[in-house]
Structure formats: C-alpha cells, structure tokens
Write a structure and sequence with these properties.
single chain; 407 residues; alpha/beta; 6-stranded mixed beta sheet; 11 helices; 15 strands; 25% strand; globular; binds 5-O-phosphono-beta-D-ribofuranosylamine
C-alpha cells in the first residue's frame, strides 16, 4: 500500500469546503489523500488564511497576472503543482473556467464540488436556480472534472429537502452543510483507488458486504437511504431465517447495539451494522427509553400509551428526545456512535412518513411539524439515526477501503 496521495486544493474565496477537508485531515478521517498545498487565483481570499491556519502551504497565482491568456495562467499553476509532486487536485469553489493545461496535466485526477444535484442547475447560483425552479429536493454533487463545466462523471451526491419557506440563503446553507460531508468522503474514496470511471459512470472497484442487523423493514429502508454513496452491498437478516433476533438485554443503547452487531457478525462472518434507539420523555423520568420498542405491542398502541401517560401535561412538561446508538462490528473492529434529536411529545399523532414514535414527536428545529410529517430527505438528515450513522460513516469508509487493500 502506498502512502496518502499528495493533493492540492484550488480555491477562489471563502474556503469552507477546504476547511472541511483540512478538519478531516486533522481528525484523521481523510486517510488516503494528504493536502499539502492550497492554491488560490485571488490575493487575500479567506481560503489562503484557512490553509495557513492549518499549517498547509498557501500559494497564490493571480489570474490577473495573465490578462486574456487563461492557458498561460493554468500552465503557471501546473508548474507550481508539478514541482511539488501533486498527484490529485480538488476544485473547491475555484471560479475559473478551465482552459486545457490543468486537465491535460491531471487526467482523471481532478474533482470538483457543485451545490446542486447535477445535471440540474450547473453554473452559478445553483441554490437560487433550485428555489426559482421549485424543486422539492436539492443537494450537492462531487464529480470528476472534464472539459465541459459541471458535467463530469458523478462520484457522490447528497440530497437535502427544499422547504416551503426557503430562500436562496437558507437553501444554500443547508446544501453547504452536506458539501462539507460529501467532499472529504469523495476525496478519500478517489485517493484510495476505490472507484473506476466507466464511460459516464463512476463505479466502485469493490463493494463491502454489510449486514443490517435489524428485523424491522422500515428501519432497513431508512438505513439504506442513510448509507447511500458508500460502496456497500447491503444484506439483511431475512437472508438468514434459521436465526432469531438476539435478546436485547443490555443496560444501555450502546450495549444493545453492540450486542446485536456482535451476534450477527459471529453468526455470519459479515461486517454488521446494528442500532438501538429509544424515546426519552422528561415528564416520565426518561421512560420509555431503552424499553421503547417493547412499551406496547404495536406502534399505534405504543403511541396511544405514551399520549395517555402524558394526558393533560402542559407544554413545558412534554420535552423529549430520540436517541440512537449505531454500532459497527467487523473482524477485530468495533465502533459505536450516538445521535440525538430534541423535541416534545405532541397531543395527537400526525404525519404519514417515518415509523414508530415519529407521528407523536415534534422536533424543536421544525416545530410545529411532527417528525412523521417531514419529507424523507429532511428526516434522513436530522434524525437521531441519521446523526449516529453520520458519526459512523468514516469508520464504515475505513472498512470499505480496508477490504480493498486485502485483495
Ligand atoms: C461551494 O458551494 C461549492 O460547491 C462551489 O463553490 C462554493 C465554494 O464555497 N463550487 P467554499 O469556498 O468552499 O466555502
């Protein structure tokens, strides 16, 4: 295995995606690329400060120095990068159209991030275009760079919901948060050699089989949506009818999630992902908590029981939170991560999405909507399960890429 690939980031302005990359590098979750150089085409931009603050070389090759000659500007950049042994390039808010020399010097080794679900809304002001068009789902795309702007093979996309009151700024902010997750993940996959370009398509060299250790088909669907973009081959426990679900008798969500993932890993030899979640109601001293799934026989009965217990309780006493702990177990590896979402228990169930207690839970951030009323794209970004899985994502990626090395 060779070391991480020397990578340069080209930026023109704010540099928040650069910052996300450098934070991932600092945290050790960007494992296969090493950002050694940041190059801007404008003096004094924040991206250069971000680079310096992270102890990374900050270069400026102003395009103004090459009036009317874009190829000459690019040749100067290529010289700088080649002298430094750069192998991979990331365009993160780089605002110059490419003229040829950069693409020729880094064929198939240049990626870009764009704030839309391409091929929708290429070019400038993608969030404004999305709001004006009236789409319900927006997002971001990381793609390989080709001569045509915003048109190269797609590596990774992350979606966000467009909400009724959204203006350009609100939507752009929601998209940007996803960009910061997508770009480090895409760069790590590309740098590790985990992807292959086939015509217009980017395909994984190999997928990691991952068993979703849950018997709940709603949860399987939600987990599958949350894991989208990682080179995984999702398996379910239905393939193993000889086994029953293990007893969840741990004393915490962590214990239960790990216990399930361990048991299924031992049974099947597969990497396993399990979760345990619950709803904690303040007025009930944190109940039903660990016992949420066993609180009554059906989801309707559980919701009815909870509402009955809280009958007459004023708003101030209805505080509650969903908690999820996700656990990943593979050969010699165990990880777990926790996610929560704060809110309160409503007076009545409402909404047709989601499952379990979602219809009676009002998340603080989206009040007065109930969790079961949020579009799937939104729920899949903000739920306790989404947050726990996001925290496990880098461990999952390490598992995927570790398997590549074993070949
Ligand atoms: C991002 O929205 C990116 O998708 C686009 O330019 C913007 C750069 O933002 N290509 P930042 O400089 O990374 O904050």
């Amino acid at each position: 295995m060779t070391g991480p690939r020397a990578t340069a980031v080209l930026a023109s302005g704010r540099g928040s995606n650069l910052e996300a990359l450098l934070e991932a590098q600092r945290a050790g979750t960007l494992r296969h690329a090493r950002i050694t150089t940041v190059l801007a085409n404008r003096e004094g931009v924040r991206a250069l400060e971000v680079a310096r603050a992270h102890g990374v070389e900050a270069l400026c090759v102003p395009h103004r120095g090459f009036p009317g000659d874009r190829p000459a500007h690019e040749r100067a950049i290529v010289d700088c990068l080649k002298q430094r042994g750069i192998e991979l390039l990331v365009l993160a808010g780089y605002d110059r159209l490419l003229a040829g020399p950069l693409l020729d010097a880094f064929p198939g080794a240049m990626i870009n991030i764009h704030p839309s679900l391409l091929p929708a809304f290429p070019g400038l002001h993608a969030a404004r275009q999305a709001v004006e068009y009236g789409v319900r789902v927006a997002g971001c795309t990381v793609h390989f760079v080709t001569a045509e702007m915003d048109a190269g093979p797609v590596i990774l996309q992350r979606s966000v919901a467009v909400l009724p009151g959204d203006d350009e700024a609100a939507l752009a902010a929601r998209i940007l948060a996803e960009e910061h997750r997508a770009l480090p993940e895409a760069l790590d996959l590309v740098a590790a050699g985990a992807l292959r370009i086939e015509g217009r398509r980017v395909v994984p060299v190999r997928r990691l089989p991952l068993l979703l250790a849950t018997g709940n088909s709603h949860k399987v669907g939600e987990l599958a949506a949350l894991l989208a973009g990682l080179p995984l081959e999702l398996r379910t426990t239905r393939e193993f009818p000889a086994f029953t679900e293990p007893e969840e008798d741990g004393g915490s969500y962590e214990e239960n999630a790990l216990l399930k993932a361990r048991v299924w890993h031992e049974r099947t030899g597969l990497w396993c992902l399990a979760d345990d979640s619950g709803i904690e109601v303040d007025a009930l001293g944190g109940r039903p908590g660990l016992h949420s799934a066993r609180y009554a026989k059906t989801a309707e009965a559980r919701n009815a029981k909870l509402l009955a217990e809280l009958a007459g309780a004023p708003e101030a006493r209805r505080g509650a939170r969903f908690v999820c702990v996700a656990a990943l177990v593979g050969p010699g590896v165990e990880h777990s991560a926790r996610g929560t979402i704060e809110g309160r228990i409503a007076e009545q169930p409402r909404g047709a999405h989601g499952f379990g207690y979602d219809p009676i839970f009002v998340p603080s951030e989206f009040a007065p909507s109930h969790l079961a009323e949020l579009p799937e794209e939104l729920k899949n970004r903000v739920s306790h399960r989404a947050r726990a899985l996001d925290a496990l994502r880098s461990a999952l990626r390490a598992a995927v890429l570790g398997q590549l090395r074993e070949r």
